[in-house]
Amino acid sequence: MKIKPGINDVLWMATGAVALLACILVVWHFHSDATPAAQLAFKARRADLVGRMQLDLVSASEAEKSAVLAITDQDSQAFADQARADSEKVEQARRELDELLATGGTPSEKDLLAQFTTAFAEFQRIDKELLALAVKNTNLKAYSLAFGPAAIALKEMDAALARFTTDDAQVMRFADNARIAAWRLLALLPPHIAEEDEKKEDEIEVAIATEDAQVRKNLEALAKFSNDSTLATARYAEFSKLKTQIIALSRENTNVRSLSISLHQKRKVMWVCQDALSALQQAILAEPIAGITYGTPVNPR
Question: pTM, whole model, 2 decimals?
Answer without folding.
Answer: 0.76
